[in-house]
User: Fold this.
Amino acid sequence: VDFDQGNLLSLSRFPAPDRREDGAALAYGVSWALFSPRGWQALATVGQIIRENTQPGFTATSGLSGTTSDLLVAAQLKFENRLSLTVRSLMDEAFSLSKAELRGDWRGKRASLGGTYLWLGADPAEGRARALSEVWLTGGYEVTQGWTANANLRYDISDERATRAGVGFVYQNECVTVDLRVNRRYTTSTSIEPSTDFGFTIALNGFSVDAGAEKYSRSCS
Assistant:
């Protein structure tokens, strides 16, 4: 369960339909958006929920526990589908963060790069005995027409070590997409050992499927 601008006005914020929120509740907020004729846009949302009764099932860091939810603050900047920055946080009455996320995405003609910083407060109900602070990085580069190289990294700042990493190659034309990936998991626990996974996928394209803005001169017969 998570509290964000997508479910601020929902009748129930449980992800499964077989569980509902009970009692009277008031959800209020303000959304603001600016669309510039130059191609960039800005969006912001601030909201909160006040309930008649406390709802069981919401964890301490979900932002929804108690009769008054955490204050939701979210904002986004976009620049001509090239660069986007998104931030979202949940703050309690003392303006202490329970969850915070910052994400940036950049896309060029042949390369793309994405990064996320995530901070989650300690919550045993969600399997976190201490606060979690991580950085996720993903990137891709079009080596030549049809061939793209990808890489990803997940780094735990609290433990000062990488938890996951991977590389891959994708070949795509108007008829087929071939995806080859290698991922390494470094984390260990009582039930999980470090492991390396290999993935190989072949997908058939065509039949009015739009794979992107660029079109190839050849066609399937």
Notes: The radius of gyration is 21 Å. The CA atoms of residues 140 and 150 lie 4 Å apart. The first strand starts at residue 25 and ends at 35.
